[in-house]
Amino acid sequence: MNLTDKIGVLADAAKYDASCSTAGSARKNTPGGLGNGAVGGICHAWAADGRCVALLKVLLSNACAYDCAYCVNRRSNDVRRASFEPEELVRLIIDFYRRNYIEGVFLSSGVVGCPDGTMERLIAVARTLRTRERFNGYIHLKVIPGASERLTLEAARWADRVSVNIELPSAASLARVAPDKKPQAIFGPMKVLAAASGFEAPRLAAPRPAPAAALEAGWPSSVAPEPAATPGEAWPMPVPAASAGTNVAAAPSPMPLEAARTAQPLPSVWEARKTRTRNPEAPLIPAGQTTQMVVGASPESDAAILTLAENLYLAYDVRRVYYSAFVPTGPDPRLPSVGKPPLAREHRLYQADWLFRFYGFKASEILDPSRPFLDSRLDPKSDWALRHLEFFPIELETAEYSELLRVPGVGPRSAAKIVKARRQSPLRAAALPKMGIVMRRAKWFITVGGKLSDTGVPERSPWMLENPEALRGELLDPAFRLAPSMQAELPWDDA
Hints:
Blueprint: H1 3-13, E1 45-46, E2 52-53, E3 55-59, H2 86-98, E4 104-108, H3 115-131, E5 138-142, H4 149-158, E6 161-163, H5 171-177, H6 183-196, E7 199-200, H7 212-216, H8 257-262, H9 269-275, E8 277-278, E9 289-295, H10 302-316, E10 320-325, H11 343-359, H12 363-366, H13 380-387, E11 394-395, H14 401-404, H15 412-424, H16 439-442, E12 446-447, H17 468-475
Parallel strand pairs: 3-4, 4-5, 5-6, 6-9, 9-10, 11-12
Antiparallel strand pairs: 1-2, 7-8
């Protein structure tokens, strides 16, 4: 197989991995070196600061010893196979860079033989790029589940970002759909990488009784195994400390029911990130680690997926959780029969994830046992607002920044502009759209100087807040107004 054919096969095989982003990289060029991980190129990966960075996204090999039902490269699937030699891939990357095609590279691979053997080949590519070729561009390296701690740390040494894909939201689904993978093979490297990046887990105060609602909205029973499950085989849940100063990331096992009844609720991801600290003497993986979950290949609810994502952010300092709509890659009795990927569901999960990281929401606020799925027609923040109308209207002249973030149509930047503007002069309703506020949604939930400027409704309660069903109709996304009111029925009997 010639080089062109290999590129076609292995680039196509890599397209299903969504956990590919350059956010957080600050690696700069050095005299005589190649590339610059802090400067944008001409391509298709968007960083958190808005840069568009060109990445060569390719597999070292699409041959795989594992038989994960959702994966196009599974060993039982009849697809064309190809592999690069490490030196061959190094030359390709450098040639692409010199032609200004790319600014960095995303490297992953099927499991060829064993995890450690595959990991050594991936590391050889990254190490050669950094040392011999003096390549200072962006490198995102996929850690193969089951790789040893030594090789996981070696990968972190050469990469800007690493990722270990969890893929499925529960141990039960992993055993059914990806029987060759074990939970410890995924969470073991995650824990090593969190420590390697200098992450220090948040410390919690002594436990206190938690509200019943918080308990009910905690770890879903469909995800967490019984307390008697084998250690290391359970999905992780950060456990609140039994006493002050206990490290929440120290225990990867799920929270026992009795502990959950008395534990102090965990902080929001937003709160934890504002106070997190990193060891400056641990400079590995400056862009941190990411992971990915496949949505729709297993019967877990959106509540289960979001709860797990929240726990990953808190316990392992995961920078991003990516959600990849399940794309059918061939018939398999372990998978649902779906006509097309659940893209609307994927979109709503990303919006809910955004509420974690930038708006101060918790998973238990967005969904609960009575509402386990996100509404496909309505963004999650608007849906939350409709279920908590007692919180509104918000007076923009006096509201705290955290309160402003709860208003539909108001984001972190526009909330910051409101706080800054009102220090200088009284706010005017006409100026709000210029601050980036989406008035189509926000106008129903705010007052300025005690009134809604366009209606003159007094501060007590705008008329729409007393008519939630009419308000829901006003808040529906235009593209979804003719769709069914909730998610399409999932193809699982036990969902």
